[in-house]
Amino acid sequence: MKHSYLPTLTLILLIQGCGSDSGESTIAVSQPIQFDVVGTLKNDCGQEQAFTQYTIYLQDENWNVLSTYQADQNGQVTIETFNDDLTFTLVAETQMGEGLVGLDVNSFVDVPSNADYFYEATFDSLKANENCECVSRDIILRHRSFVEKQTDDASAPVMNWISQDNQQSLFQSTEVCRVIGEPWPLHSFTVFGSSLQEQLTGSSELTREFDDGSEQGIEISAIEIAAPYPIIIQHDRTTLSQLFQVNEHFTVALSSDGDVAPVFDSHRFVDEALHKSVTKDNLASIRSLFGISTYDVNRQVINSDILLALDNQLPLIHPELDFENYSELGEDGQYDYSESESDVLSIAFIYDVKDDTNQTIPVSWSLFGPLQGLLPMTVGLDDISQVVDSSSDVTTTTITLYNSANTNRYDDYIRHFMGNTNHAITADMVWYELNLQF
């Protein structure tokens, strides 16, 4: 169902007296801006279907509800407005595996009215998998010898990894899906370990061959050998991977005492690959009356040049945040992280909600907005108050502060958070994360 949110129509009178023989005036009427919300659900082979189990609440700056919109049969909501920006909350049903149906709530502040919102739902029992073919395969990877095997990686979900001997590893119950009649997706299977030179190295294979369903499994030989790239790790942890052919490949964690990074730089998709590194430092971890609190800094670099991706150093100066008492979150619902000098933030609450049989109902509420303002969770929504309100118990609170090297514009971030993917934002981004588990 489509609704319209139309403030009082302002007519702009343009009196054109000069040069007009008739003396008539021209009336120009401003055109409303159309703001669209599109809800989708992906099946197991990546096809999109309409998701309709959500509601949009258009709100004012104090989170008072102005109007309500229910998704139509195509999973869409259309709002027409004369305002340049909107503040709203999406309430969607969510469900995973065999679990109960819960709520995924997302609130946005000052969204550009000309920016659409693409919401991707999680609701496993509603997936339409009629066009999908999914198989479970044991993948036996024959690879080079290691002095010591350390870890593995697969771009497909794997139940278990078993080191069978020094030159063979088993990726047990690998789950692979495709659209019926189409080729299998490309996946990588990788083993990392130490070389004779006591350096971290890797052996991998890329394959689309998943048709063989024999009990012995599918045997593949790892012909890709990682090259050692010198690196100085000055932080707690750096994770390195490559992005190509839809999936993420060759993921490996580099330890702080290592001096090289294993990089697969000669495979057949290397020209299209993007190298991704994520560096993390724990700035503080404490246990208090509130619970366990951690304060971390992260930086992500994504680049086609491996040397630029590996040059991933964290800032030397960090915001002084109250990771012990969380005083930036006021008891009146006001929050203030303006002194962090970040660009935008997100604040997420995970709630402790149980049904009559004491089973967990998944409920989360996230805010995406400026560094200072009013939490929508403290105001609440009448329509979901029987499930969650301002007095509900919170199990986890996460505050994330974002800084991208490529933009500081609020609108750029909000568009990105609403599914208008902006790769430039995430190509070089620093974020600080405060996490409190009660």
Describe the structure.
The chain is mainly beta. Among the domains are: 11-126, Immunoglobulin-like, CATH 2.60.40; 132-272, no CATH class. It is 5% helix and 49% strand. It has 4 helices and 30 strands. The chain has helices at 306-310, 376-379, 410-417, 423-427; strands at 11-14, 26-29, 33-42, 48-50, 54-59, 65-70, 76-81, 85-94, 102-112, 117-120, 132-142, 148-154, 158-165, 168-179, 187-194, 200-207, 218-221, 224-225, 227-230, 237-244, 247-254, 260-263, 274-287, 292-303, 334-336, 344-351, 363-369, 372-374, 394-404, 428-437. A 12-stranded mixed beta sheet has the order 6-5-8-9-27-26-29-30-24-23-20-21. Strands 3, 4, 7 and 10 form a 4-stranded mixed beta sheet that branches. Strands 13-14-11-17 form a 4-stranded mixed beta sheet, with no helix packed on it. The longest helix is centred in the last third of the chain and has 8 residues, at 410-417. The chain is globular. The chain starts with 10 loop residues before the first strand and ends with a strand. The model is unreliable at 1-29 (pLDDT under 50).
